[in-house]
Amino acid sequence: MKITILLIITTLCVGLTTNLFAQYPAELIEYHTEISLKKNKLKTKVTKRLQINSSAADDYTNTYLHFSKGDNLKIHTVRIEDVNGKTIRELKKKEIKTQSSVMQGALYTDDFVKYFKPKWHQYPYRIYFEYTHVVDDFLSLARWSPVTQAEVSTREATLSITLPNDYPINISNLDSIDFTQNKTSDETSYTWTAKNVLPPKIEKNAPPLRSILPTVMVFPVAFTYGLDGSQQTWQDYGKWQYQMNEDLRELPASEKQKIEELIAGLTTPKDIVHKLYNYLQENHRYILVAIETGGLQPYPASYVCEKRYGDCKALTNFMQAMLEYVNIPAFYVKVYAGDNPIPLKTDIPGQQFNHVILGVPLNGDTLWLENTSNSNPPGYLGTFTQNRKGLLVHSADSRLIDLPKLTAEKPVHQSTFNFILDEMGKGSLTIQTTVTNQDFEILNFYQKNRTPIKIKKLIQQYFPLTNASLLNYTFSQPDALRPALDLQTKWTAKRQYLKIANKKVVSPIPFKDIELEKIDKRTQSVVFNYPENESFEVNYKIANLENYKVELPEPINVSTPYGTLSMKATVTDGKIKIQQHRTINSGTFLLETYPELYAFCKMTNDISKKFQIVCSPK
Fold first, then answer.
1. Sign of the alpha-carbon dihedral angle for 223, 224, 225, 226
2. Do the Cβ atoms of 219 and 230 come closer than 8 Å?
């Protein structure tokens, strides 16, 4: 893909000493980027000087420079220096390699990479390199931040962009990076400077770092990329994408006949959409193809008909073409996909996306189609694209829209555990489980795409059991149009009691652990992008239970802004029953509330230790 969104991570700090920087395994001593535009060619010159402080950081010298067919990427020099800047040795041309930048899942691509991996044996040492990259087609002038690698501090970094005075641009940046602007009779120079920059700590369930850390994005208002376009407004940019997709939805006669056969007898648009989506899923596979304008323009629908595969753009365009043929309108929607959504910078219209989906208006609602999935039902977006903004592409009314978010109205994981145990805690276990939302995504994908061995391994990891071995499993999906899956499993079990003297201690099934840093170590807000809702009923049928006095703990009912927890134990007909339910609310929780959030999560993590049933001989 020609447009590479570089996720660069940094936190700005000032007044730091050299000793503080030396605590990091590597330091970016200087990092300078100069960008200029001449005769519609965008030239980027980069110089870097990286200091390696210990052998643990040697891999930070591995450098990969990506470029596309038709680009001019020239590496001027790569050398190893001592800390005083004295050259130890200069890399030879043969030590700089070039290869195709084939990504996992890619069939072929026009992207390439030059790379080099210089090393030295005496510490500290420095790597200095300089290169220029010239491109003809671009939608972005700069996506820049002062730090380029995690756990690498930056002493000084600058970005300068020099453009003709009559060249309009859109800029998005934060005040934490110093900015100056100078204008001559012919050109305007924009310069950003950052000093003494520390990388952030990588923390669990943290916000997307690009959303909280300073970056600079500069887009041209007018551009040429396949076609002339504009990024003045979101409507302008969407119109350009619409024009890029025009005339790519023509289907061959054989495919039209196939569609007619598929929908014969169907009368409602919803049934027709479901049928065609099922046809797409069962007969076409996802694979990345990125050549020429392949990064932003879909392959024609006829190509997918012939090959029976395509990337997200090609499959979405093909699905749109099928619906267009049967007179059902549908809209191409661009989105930045990922489990931890990176918020769109709405103040700077343009290419900030890495994925496309399809929106189909039906009866005042929208049916969302994820066309790269062979397992998700129609209408279900899932964790990959839920709860973020997307760009609806329209000929005259392109606009940003809010994609629906996952809710916890029904349990994500609901299980009934039935243990039949002897007095030693040995016996059998059956589990009847229904999963929805994110758990449905995982299990449904596995049961449709993985081998029995891998499925069995996933199931064993999915249930938080100890001393239990899986015998067999059965999946069923009562309604193929709903994101819900049933799973029945059978297990052998042993040592299911904790023995204290002559007493047996029975515990609940532990919930999925929420791993967070201790209170004094946390520095960032906590983000739960989608809710968790787990509901378990655990039944223990124990041999000779009538000979034991059963002591039950008091019920637990806790409700907080972060979630809820309820626990209850009863004894009926010689059977111990534990009913347990936990929800974790989605949202962003600020650092000042972290002690309360941490306490709630720790309580739910420790529930199998805190809520116990003690069986004592009578």
1. positive
2. no
The helix (run of H) or strand (run of E) holding residue 590 is none
Q: Return the CA Rg of the chain.
A: 29
Q: How far apart are CA 514 and CA 589, in angstroms?
A: 15
Closest CA to 120 of 85, 89, 74, 160: 89
Q: What is the pLDDT of residues 350-395, one digit of tens each?
A: 999 999 999 999 988 999 999 999 999 999 999 999 999 999 999 9
The residue written with tokens 């749109």 in the block is 320
Listed residue (8, 33, 345, 39) closest to 171, CA to CA: 345
Reported as type and span, the H/E element at residue 73 is strand 72-81
Which burial class, exposed, middle or buried, applies to 286 when counting CB atoms under 10 A from its CB (0-12, 13-18, 19+)?
middle
Partner residues linked to 94 by β-bridges: none
Q: Which of the residues in the chain have pLDDT under 50? A: 1-18, 103-107, 290-293
d(CA 129, CA 76): 8
Three-state secondary-structure class, residue 171: strand
pLDDT of residue 295: 75
Backbone angles phi, psi at 27, to 5 degrees: -130, 135
Question: Can you name the residues that pair with 587 across neighbouring β-strands?
Answer: 528
Annotate 178-219 with DSSP letters as a single string: EEEEEE-SSEEEEEEEEEEEEPPP--TTPPPHHHHS--EEEE
Which two three-digit tokens encode residue 609?
């230790």
Helix (H, G, I), strand (E, B) or coil at 240: helix
293 phi, psi to nearest 5 deg: -90, 25
What per-residue confidence (pLDDT) applies to 1? 39
User: Of the candidates 416, 461, 417, 467, which has an alpha carbon nearest to the alpha carbon of residue 443?
Assistant: 461
Q: For the whole model, what pTM was predicted? A: 0.88
Tens of pLDDT, residues 3-24: 333 333 333 333 334 455 557 8
Q: Which of 446, 437, 439, 492 is nearest to 465 (CA)?
A: 492
> Nearest CA to 245 among 401, 394, 398, 69?
394
Q: Report all structural domains of the chain as residue ranges with CATH numbers, in order of start.
A: 11-212 (2.60.40.3140), 230-402 (3.10.620.30), 413-617 (2.60.120.1130)
| Bridge partners, residue 357, by sequence | 333
pLDDT at 176: 80
- The confidence score (pLDDT) of residue 110 equals 60
Residue 265, C-beta contacts closer than 8 angstroms, at least 6 positions apart: none
Instruction: Specify the pLDDT at position 20.
Output: 55
How far is 516 from 589, CA to CA, in rounded Å? 13
Round to whole Å and give the CA distance between 85 and 119. Answer: 16
State the Cα angle at 62 between 58 and 68, rounded to 5°. 170
> For strand 106-109 and strand 288-290, is the pairing parallel, antiparallel, or unpaired?
parallel
